[in-house]
Amino acid sequence: MTGIIMHPRQKDLFYARTDVGGAYRWDSATSKWIPLLDWLGADDNNLMGIESIALDPTDARVVYIAAGTYSRTNAAILRSDDHGKTFERTEVPFRMGGNELGRFNGERLAVDPNDGQILFFGSRRDGLWKSADRGASWENVNSFPAIDTTEPLSLMRSNAWSRGRFDFTPQSVGIVFVQFDAKSDSPGKPTPTIYVGVSTVQTNFYCSHDGGATWQAVANQPIGLRPNHLAAATDGIFYLTYGKEPGPNAMTDGAVWKFNPTNNSWTDITPLKSPDGGQVFGYGAVAVDAQDAATITVATFARWKPHDEIFRSTDGGVHWTQLLQNAKWDFSTAPYTATHTPHWVGDIEINPLNRDQLLFTTGYGIWCCTNVTAADHGLPTHWCFFDNGLEETVPLALISPSEGAHLLSGLGDLDGFRHDDLDVSPLEGTFSGPRFSNTEDLAFAGQHPEIMVRVGSADKGVRAVISSDGGKKWTALAGEPPNSGGSGTVTISADGKSIVWTPRRSTAYVTTDLGANWTECMGLSTGVRVVADTVNPTRFYACDFRTGKLMASKDGAAHFVATEASFQPATGIFPGRGVPMLYATPGAEGDLWLAVRNEGLLHSTNGGRTFVRLPAVQEADSLGLGKAAPGKDSPALFLAGTIEGLHAVYRSDDDGGAWVRINDDQHQFGSVSRVTGDPRIYGRVYFATGGRGIIYGDAAGKVEK
């Protein structure tokens, strides 16, 4: 969660932005977050990362969203006059990076509080922009100083990991906030005084007194650190937080400064200097009480030990109280949070109409306090996890076994869960046993579904674990293949006795003694994912997308040979534009499905010797197989792909002869992957998104369990 935006006059009207999972509005009537951008489809998946949100102080219905996950592709300004129920869209020439360096900074987008027609946006690498028609069109503010904020490679490396993906694209943080001084003019006239902060350790704070026509560096400003947030008090004083780096992973120094624009005076009010006991950190957020100009809160950033801290002052920063030192935490709605200390506190907000309520963002959600003024009397503050309706995880693996829990997930950043009840957060938290930061693949034995394996990012050197009780408890394998370069992919034989692991940047290896010894699978190329037959424990399959061959093994994965159905890449069956995914049908030996993103869906009933293309499917991103429809023998098929030119989620009950769309235009969720059918409930499907968590749906009518 990268930011919370509160309307200054409408009670309990909050919005939240995320780095990859869209935007939300808090609905106080149902006490639930409402997703606003699920209507975005696969072609617009880049718009699911939110750079900034702005509200019109004079019209509570209006919300603007600056959308763009990565600066290498398209971005847009989305504008709504009905609280985000519907949007109009403007493609913009400036680039955004909602999941890049400095993504907690802000807000970069701002509405003129005296003239709602006017908006300013501070971009990462294309300067300052202005709209005079409520965001419908934009022009560059050429008078703003050109400042190069491209980050060095070393800084990008320290911040490049994101939910199982590395991104070393050159990044620029650029302008990080725009702030109008509402008191510099009266309603109905454009606000003349505007402040802008730039992410650089050199001169970084600028002001215009003529509505953006000319700009000057603010006098006497501190340098050596980067500004990341600014908060305006009702008495005209500004408060700024700084970090040496833009974040999120690294921030080794920081400060909090108080600025009086009447005389350009600056006061250092940093509550705790970095380093503290050997722990380096910065400051990442500041908020001012709208009902008391002297009451402010600030938050540390990247203070990993013991955790980030929130400081509160009731005298303008002269004295400070720590809020989290003796805090009381309610983990009941999300038990897994008990093992997560507050970190990446990138934004903090005081409810402008309820000064007892304080919200702050973290790398894993939002925390809320409703008695923050208790700290003024030496009493502990109480915090609850404020995430009802908010799903912002990135699933990397999903399985639905034929017994036990209906769903197990592997997630980026959060390891994974056994979902015994889909309607509540797992009561036992994340997986028991060795923990991963990312669980990147999961598999269960076709004839013994209680036996499962999973691989992921190392926890104390462990990258592969096994469970014999349906994922309740996990133990590490005895060892791993030689020269393995990462977690990669994994499968397990139908009888649960042979594990095949393809570590990243390695060929596949098989073990029959729980990892004590590994043997290389002969005949496979590096990085090829292996799939186990669900019935015959000696049979395994693999799709070599580089050579265009379907590989099969009949000796327990010791040797793989190409079947007669091997294809040449030039035919388009195995293009380089999307890695084909191979699936083995539950309960049917040698029955395989092959989904190819840009070519379609293919089916084999003879162990991959021959394949038949399903003519209706033009593109296949992901396939899931679930319980057969009543009166049918073949499993229900769930497809994320394109049929008759429409990219959507579909179901077929007759081996792909006929398809019915099961989502709609308002529920596309950006990218859809890892589609998984439930083998015990007809019509139930699970799938992963690129940032909106795990979605599941049931066929209309009574659910058959």
CATH superfamily of the domain at 1-193: YVTN repeat-like/Quinoprotein amine dehydrogenase
CATH architecture of the domain at 1-193: 7 Propeller
The share of residues in extended strands comes to 35-45%
Integer-rounded radius of gyration: 27 Å
Structural class: mainly beta
Topology:
Blueprint: E1 3-6, E2 14-17, E3 23-27, E4 32-35, E5 50-56, E6 59-67, E7 76-80, E8 88-91, E9 109-111, E10 119-122, E11 128-131, E12 139-140, H1 153-158, E13 161-162, E14 165-166, E15 175-180, E16 194-198, E17 205-208, E18 216-217, E19 226-232, E20 238-243, E21 254-260, E22 265-268, E23 282-288, E24 296-301, E25 310-313, E26 321-322, E27 328-330, E28 348-350, E29 358-361, E30 366-369, E31 382-385, E32 395-399, E33 407-411, E34 415-419, E35 439-444, E36 452-459, E37 462-467, E38 475-476, E39 489-492, E40 499-502, E41 509-511, E42 519-520, E43 530-532, E44 540-544, E45 549-553, E46 561-562, E47 581-584, E48 592-596, E49 600-604, E50 612-613, E51 617-626, E52 636-643, E53 646-652, E54 660-661, E55 672-677, E56 685-689, E57 694-697
Parallel strand pairs: 27-31
Antiparallel strand pairs: 1-2, 2-3, 3-4, 5-6, 6-7, 7-8, 9-10, 10-11, 11-12, 13-14, 15-16, 16-17, 17-18, 19-20, 20-21, 21-22, 23-24, 24-25, 25-26, 28-29, 29-30, 30-31, 32-33, 33-34, 35-36, 36-37, 37-38, 39-40, 40-41, 41-42, 43-44, 44-45, 45-46, 47-48, 48-49, 49-50, 51-52, 52-53, 53-54, 55-56, ...
